Amino acid sequence: MxxxxxxxxxxxxxxxxxxxxVLGGILIPVGDLIIQKTVKQEAVIEPGTTAHxxxxxxxxxxxxxxxxxxxxxxxxxxxDGAAPVVTERGPxxxxxxxxxxxxxxxxxxxxxxxxxxNGAIFEPSMSAGTEEDKITSLNLKGFLAGxxxxxxxxxxxxxxxxxxxxxxFQRRTVKELLNCFVPTKYLIILFSPQSRSVYLxxxxxxxxxxxQTLNLGFWNDKYCDMLNGTDASSFPPFVDKKEPIFxxxxxxxxxxxxxxxxxxxLKGIDVYRYSLLQSTLASPVDNPDNKCFCSNMKTTKNCTLxxxxxxxxxxxxxxxxxxxxxxLHGSPSLRTDVLGLNPDEEHHKTFLDVEPTTGFTLNFAKRxxxxxxxxxxxxxxxxxxxxxxxxxxxxxxxxxxxxTADMFKKxxxxxxxxxxxxxxxxxxxxxxxxxxxxxxxxxVRRSHNQSKLA
Length: 454
What we know:
Elements: H1 2-43, H2 50-56, E1 62-71, H3 74-80, E2 86-96, E3 102-106, E4 111-115, E5 120-122, E6 134-138, H4 140-145, H5 154-163, E7 169-173, H6 174-179, E8 200-204, E9 214-215, E10 226-227, E11 245-249, E12 254-266, E13 269-276, E14 309-310, E15 320-323, H7 334-337, H8 345-348, E16 351-354, E17 361-374, E18 387-399, H9 402-453
Antiparallel strand pairs: 1-2, 1-18, 2-5, 3-4, 4-8, 6-7, 9-10, 11-12, 12-13, 13-16, 14-15, 15-17, 16-17, 17-18
């Protein structure tokens, strides 16, 4: 009788273990569904969600660092038409005061528009000098003042510079050079399409409609004028690293995509690092999709020049050209027309670190170079051909602080990890009990059979 009880108990234990194991197995897909539902609910940018609260409030500290290019042989360029030789000065660092978003308006097409007030404070401790440092560079003030004459009435502009006792080059303070592009009060709107103290960004609020496209109106082309994706502060949850991410950059007045590069650990959080592709600023010869960004056949050498984007169409006609620092991924001629450049992938690329479950961008480094074009000229220096003159590069960075990282891990990662642990424990313990009970049942049964034979 006792043997029968043992066998019945072991069978019951095996059944219990199987039930626990099945429960653990069922909890895996069910738990995943719960996580997905919760994250999707909280990741949608609409009033009441965690994503909306974090997105609408004042953001983390953002630093923008400037490096200015100093021309070391200005007189040789003017007298002999020598290729400019430049050295990089900097960084000159500003802390951006990201204030709370204003005039947030939700629209019926799954988008939300907002105004973002901005400002900047010089950070001496993070800078290589002061705002009073003097640097010899291209006469930006003269060129920006006569921007509308640059292409159509080039000789008139040259005469204006010459008769006003100006030069192709100028020696000005860092503060003056940076103010050629932006008002002092609003330094970070350097490339704002609206050229004012606030700028309009459009961000898809529904994860199911993040690929919604709107028209920019800068490029006179339906494809190039599409506004794709988000403002890069967040992306749809459950990011698939096999797929590129899309976002609009007001600095270059166009939408771009980035592809997965590697997984890195950021303060205990695994994030996907996405980098811009070389094809982003490739010439239309190598990337036909960039054909509509090529608007001037002369300056782009019949659209064969790679690495430079003319954004004058969104800068009120100012002759501003954007590239990656030191013409990274640009045509070799860009680095022979101006000497002293050393492009480096690690130091000059743009990347974003995205947490894959929520789609939040937790760290980024945006690197851009501002350029002007000039030439040919016999009046203001013996410049024999159209030359890209470098003005400055800037690096804008932001990363989550320790407090936010701890909150993120506590509120999200720890819960997900706890659910995964419960799943694994139930499955493991259930299978363990089931297997052990079966083994002991077989042992007891064999012992019982042998005793009966004896």
